[in-house]
Design goal:
24% of the residues lie in helices and 24% in strands. The chain is of the alpha+beta class. The protein folds into two domains: 114 residues, Uridine Diphospho-n-acetylenolpyruvylglucosamine Reductase, domain 3; 230 residues, Alpha-Beta Plaits (2-Layer Sandwich), CATH 3.30.70.2520. A hairpin with an 8-residue loop joins strand 1 and strand 2. Helix 8 packs antiparallel against helix 9. The chain starts with a strand and ends in an 8-residue tail after the last helix.
Length: 451
């Protein structure tokens, strides 16, 4: 199969690395003869998880068939290159929805398993891997193995959250959730500061199946951590207005494309501060429940094609961490104080509550709260700031999300992921030559030898 040597990046556009690209056209060809390779779906991980500098990257975008859909039971089987967008087009009109979804639908099914993605409902429904019935995994020797929580379970939980390093995820069988409509019923709650925001997120009377909080990352002093808690659920038929029509019908969302890279100075303290003040007033004033489509609630940024160009040619880092329950408030407050003191604005700051720790050996979620920040790369000072954030996270017993990471150290990785030793034993058993590797894996020394 022909290869193309090309410079590529993750969604954050940093780092940019030259890789050998190979794109199979059918499932039977979903393996490479390369000594080192990593599978890549839509390239929506932010850093270097789907990069393999000067080595092979296997593009799975063409291996995307939906193979089987049991409409009565809500079970879908598909090739791992299928995107959530492609799946939603089929399942929503039939009264089904994804059990867990990240903040974009333009990700592959295999990528969702490899990163064990989470959504706004983690505190209620867990992460993606909790709803996967089975996968077919292509191992380094070319053999194909069926894995599930009951069959080859150790390999299954090493692959869920394993960042594609145990093998190529070929097929995924997924349990869906039933819905009565394609719309969401949403309620906003404004919080004047971080303490109020935590009270909202911890209050069962305010909670819903899906809950996420936007934070004004530039707020300081008594307003530190002010934000909007956005709670929602799939609207039932009796919540729709009279004469609504087909409850499961969807209409194309208007989309715009960012046609060029913004100059580096465009997103600054003044411009983001003005946007945050306007957003806080506008969204905080929505005090009554309202109806909206699932796209604006789950995937607001998908409405802007190439929105990563907002951060300029140098790209950005999305820093996402989780701080465990008990010390979550103190840890998140310390992170926001460090960020606001740096005067490096985050265009987007999102806080979510997590439920129980994921069963994947390298899964990111743990019981606590996760904070995600988008930080444009202007100079090397950003990386000094991120090192300080790592120190805060480690001090509070938290961890950084590998699917977003572009610069964590190997020592920090090992401190944050205590089950790595268990994972490595399984990796060495199924891939003793460490054939499945990536730039992220080599940077963090994942899969190399022994502990």
């Amino acid at each position: 199969m022909a290869t193309l040597v090309k410079a590529i990046s993750g969604w954050g556009r940093y780092p940019l690395q030259t890789c050998e690209l190979e794109r199979p056209e059918r499932y039977a060809d979903l393996l490479s003869d390369a000594d080192s390779l990593i599978a890549r779906g839509q390239g929506r991980s932010y850093g270097d998880a789907a990069l393999n500098e000067n080595r092979r990257v296997l593009l799975t975008e063409r291996v995307n068939r939906l193979l089987e859909f049991d409409i009565e039971k809500g079970v879908l089987r598909a090739e791992a290159g299928a995107t959530l967008a492609e799946i939603l087009e089929v399942i929503v009109p039939k009264g089904w929805f994804l059990p867990v979804t990240p903040g974009t639908k333009f990700v592959s099914l295999g990528g969702c398993v490899a990163a064990d993605v989470h959504g706004k409902n983690h505190h209620n429904d867990g992460s993606f891997g909790d709803h996967v019935i089975a996968i077919e995994l292509i191992l380094a020797d070319g053999s194909r193995v069926a894995c599930s929580a009951s069959e080859n379970a150790e390999l299954f939980w090493a692959t869920v959250g394993g960042m594609g390093l145990t093998g190529i995820i070929g097929e995924v069988k997924l349990k869906l959730i039933p819905i009565q409509s394609s719309h969401m019923m949403v309620q906003h709650h404004a919080a004047a500061n971080l303490e109020q925001l935590f009270q909202l997120l911890q209050n069962p009377a305010m909670d819903d199946r899906y809950t996420v909080a936007w934070i004004d990352s530039l707020a300081t002093g008594k307003n530190l951590g002010r934000g909007i808690a956005m709670c929602g659920h799939h609207a039932a038929v009796d919540e729709l207005p009279a004469g609504f029509g087909n409850a499961l019908a969807t209409k194309p969302e208007r989309s715009r494309t960012m046609p060029f890279d913004l100059p580096g100075w465009a997103l600054n303290t003044l411009s983001i501060g003005a946007f945050n003040a306007l957003f806080y007033r506008r969204e905080g004033n929505k005090q009554q429940p309202f109806l909206t489509g699932y796209d604006p609630y789950f995937y607001p940024l998908d409405a802007i094609g190439h929105w990563n160009r907002l951060y300029g040619k140098r790209g950005f880092v999305q820093y996402q961490c989780v701080i465990p329950d008990g010390v979550a408030f103190d840890g998140i407050r310390a992170l926001l104080q460090e960020l606001s003191g740096s005067r490096r604005p985050s265009f987007l700051a999102v806080l979510k509550r997590f439920g129980a720790q994921g069963r994947g050996l390298l899964s990111f979620p743990m019981a606590g709260y996760t904070l995600a920040l988008d930080l444009p790369i202007r100079d090397e000072g950003l990386f000094a700031l991120l090192n300080k954030l790592d120190e805060i996270v480690l001090r509070h017993g938290g961890r950084v999300y590998l699917a977003k990471d572009a610069r964590l150290s190997a020592d920090s990785f090992r401190a944050m992921y205590p089950r790595y030793g268990e994972w490595l034993k399984i990796k060495n058993a199924v891939d003793p030559q460490n054939r499945f590797s990536s730039s992220l894996a080599r940077r963090l020394q994942i899969g190399e030898g022994t502990l």
